[in-house]
């Protein structure tokens, strides 16, 4: 068992840290809102710390799952950041969906300080985090990955090293690009089925047995048909992720016409008041 810190107790981080504790690891947590950290300790045990630096002090591994590049820099850098408290040879594992540039920058800074850094964004959503069944895509060096992988297994069903610094974030971008087009296709299919006078549930029952099947179809078609979206991965978060994808594409020359279009469709959903709706709410835009 390892002594670890976990920074960021949001929708994903709260249960992920809980799985680490349930597996017997010694866990110190930090959250920007201290009350959330205190609630976690009351539920799971372990301890909380007043700053990332104090949470990371003496820990073998420091995990983070925060909002974006700026939040990530805030918990790693500076006199109160985690890097200032980590011991030489410790490993920082970042589960934030952030830019590849931020991953490379922080990997470089960690190396300068004698630390290791893995960019390790996740897929599987809130349900995957709660069930300990996330997929983790890692970028970094092989040695720290080999050390961290058994600990990551506390909340992951799959974890793979994709390449050097930034490769994990780039892989997560591919994941989000695939989902964006798929959800729009599912939304259009269900919308078309309704307008054609078909029983949408029966349609899905048939086509989900064939080539059209997907996780989104299996897990989201009922709520899409019912027009219920007050759960899941928020539109705001997906637009953040797509912005990262589109920015990276401008650098590497990739053409992403569908992603750019779906990003604007999500902007329409935000304008409808759906900023916190699940990403499957693309169908609401078609049916407004």
Distinctive features:
288 residues; Rossmann fold; N-(1-d-carboxylethyl)-l-norvaline Dehydrogenase, domain 2; six-stranded parallel beta sheet; 14 helices
Model description:
The protein is an alpha/beta fold and 288 residues long. It has two domains: 3-164, NAD(P)-binding Rossmann-like Domain (Rossmann fold), CATH 3.40.50.720; 170-287, N-(1-d-carboxylethyl)-l-norvaline Dehydrogenase, domain 2 (Orthogonal Bundle), CATH 1.10.1040.10. The protein is 55% helix and 14% strand. It has 14 helices and nine strands. It has helices at residues 13-22, 34-44, 52-56, 69-76, 82-85, 100-112, 125-131, 142-152, 167-195, 200-207, 215-226, 235-252, 257-271, 282-287; strands at residues 3-7, 26-30, 47-48, 61-64, 91-94, 116-119, 122-123, 134-139, 156-163. The strands form two sheets. It has a six-stranded parallel sheet with strand order 3-2-1-4-5-6. The chain has a three-stranded mixed sheet with strand order 7-8-9. Helix 1 (13-22) links the parallel strand 1 and strand 2 (26-30). Helix 9 packs across helix 12 (235-252) and helix 12 packs antiparallel against helix 13. The longest helix has 29 residues, at 167-195. The N and C termini lie far apart (53 Å).
Which CATH architecture of the largest domain?
3-Layer(aba) Sandwich
Instruction: Using the coordinates above, name the CATH class of the largest domain.
Output: Alpha Beta
**Shape summary:** globular
User: What's the multimeric state?
Assistant: single chain
Q: Order of strands across the widest beta sheet?
A: 3-2-1-4-5-6
From N to C, what is the helix and strand string?
EHEHEHEHHEHEEHEHEHHHHHH
């Amino acid at each position: 068992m390892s002594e670890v810190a976990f920074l960021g107790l949001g929708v994903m981080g709260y249960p992920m840290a809980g799985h680490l504790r349930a597996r017997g690891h010694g866990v110190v947590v930090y959250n920007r809102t201290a009350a959330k950290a205190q609630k976690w300790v009351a539920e799971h045990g372990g301890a909380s710390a007043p700053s990332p630096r104090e949470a990371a002090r003496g820990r073998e591994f420091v995990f983070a799952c925060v909002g974006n590049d700026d939040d990530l820099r805030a918990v790693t850098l500076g006199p109160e950041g985690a890097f200032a408290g980590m011991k030489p040879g410790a490993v920082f594992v970042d589960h934030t969906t952030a830019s590849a540039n931020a991953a490379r920058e922080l990997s470089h800074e960690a190396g300068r300080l004698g630390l290791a850094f893995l960019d390790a964004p996740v897929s599987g959503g809130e349900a995957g985090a709660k069930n300990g069944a996330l997929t983790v895509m890692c970028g970094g060096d092989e040695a720290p990955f080999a050390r961290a992988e058994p600990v990551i297994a506390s909340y992951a069903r799959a974890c793979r090293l994709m390449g050097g610094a930034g490769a994990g974030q780039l892989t997560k971008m591919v994941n989000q690009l695939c989902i964006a087009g798929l959800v729009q296709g599912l939304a259009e299919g269900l919308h078309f089925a309704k307008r054609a006078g078909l029983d949408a549930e029966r349609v899905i029952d048939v086509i989900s047995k064939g080539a059209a099947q997907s996780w989104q179809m299996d897990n989201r078609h009922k709520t899409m048909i019912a027009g219920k979206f007050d759960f899941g991965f928020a539109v705001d978060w997906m637009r953040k992720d797509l912005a990262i994808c589109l920015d990276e594409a401008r650098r590497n020359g990739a053409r992403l016409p569908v992603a750019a279009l779906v990003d604007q469709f999500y902007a329409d959903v935000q304008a409808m008041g759906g900023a916190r709706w699940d990403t499957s709410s693309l169908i609401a835009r078609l049916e407004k």
